[in-house]
Amino acid sequence: MGKAWVKRWSPEKKGVKGSFVEILEVKPMPSIEEIQWRLPPSKSHAIRLLAIAGQSNQSILLKGMEHAGDDVVAMRRCLRQMGVSCADVGTDGEVLPPNPNLDDQPPEGTVAWRIEGVGPHGLHPPVSVLHAGNSGTTLRILMALASRFSVPIMLDGDASLRSRKYPVMLDSLEKMAVVCSHGTAGEGLPLLIQGPAMHPASLELEATISSQPFTAWHLATPSFSSGMSVLMAGEPVSRRHLALTRDLCVQAGAASSVHDSMLEPWVPTFEHPEITVPSDCSMFAFACLAASVCKTNVKVSNMPSDGDSLGHEVLFTYAASLGLVLNNGLIEPNAPSSSLVADLRDANDLITPLAAMLALGGGGEITGVAHAAHKETNRLTGTKHFLQQFGLDVHLSEGTLHVEGGQTLVSPKELVQTYGDHRMQMTAIVLSMGCSDTVRIEGSRLHRVADPMAVNRWRSQGVSIEEVLHQHW
Predict the structure, then answer these.
(1) Residue 397 CA: distances (Å) to CA of 89, 366, 367, 402, 436
(2) Host domain of residue 86
(3) pLDDT tens digits, 347-378
């Protein structure tokens, strides 16, 4: 009996049945009227603000947190494990009772979070694993924050995070005499670290893969005993995200030298204890894709400013080439499209939906995205194989995606593979609206990482989307 059970649940799936897979079953409608669209709060802003506010001596109200994604909730949950109190606040300013046994998910009606900071040295070691969920940003920040503790701290994540590597953060931890123990071969997590970190006068970090290690050490600086200069090796990517980290630190009282990579200990102090988190402009790509696929107007009610868009405002520049007219949040798919060369060096989150829009429109190239191979999945090869499932051809050459225009969607006959990437799953949901047959999509909850309303938004339009268990053998 035991041997049969072990074989059935083997992860290898060679000669065994495996388990059921949670999927979405989408039955598209022939036509959809104007779509009302609300963007979720920016997880990039919210995660960083949580880390800073938690190390302040203040009570900070983060507004605009309605329908926050699981990545942000993961950061909040882990800070709570280290002693930071966070209350959910409703529309009338009332504190809402917590949802029991729901992985720290905010209750219905939450529009703001109140964070009670514990000071630069007030975090305490958690009694259980710090689980970052799907968020690589959260995980790296937690690595830096937890390095201050003299007891072992275990960090983990979902299957996507486990499959990724963290060489830059691990190298920096080891240079600071932090003991690190982690898996080998295919999995980089769980990770066990034990400090306290001994911060050197200067630290050089590889900058060509991700800006997140720089963000992590910037946000851990309040507890430092002395300053540290952080040097960049190579051409940096995601520069707007690092600039956001530095701007938020300075706004909360850090020395302006942080912009020159000189990190000094500081006590986070916000001039205004109420902060509105802007909406996530990277999610605007799916509203644009919806307009292109459904051939209908999409009205976005909470557009962020250019300054809060973290490089994703390139969508506003590229809209005309994509055949879209933008006017105060209204997206109209009425213009002719043309070929486009899109540089996404600072906006690689747009790769998959933008490649789909190019294929359905005037075609073109996506450049500056070689570092996207290190995201949830290899987002370059992943996008190529993902779009092929909808009959859209994309070619990859030396880190550039080449997309022929004027292509037509084909209804996938098999389960659409999303490779554990929430942006591919969300792209698949929108592309399904342009298909003639029912589409089955791997990963029924992936969208919750960034936009918990991604499914209900379509259901409100009358589209049938069901969560079902798929028997894949």
Answers:
(1) 49, 11, 10, 8, 32
(2) 43-276
(3) 999 999 999 999 999 999 999 887 555 554 57
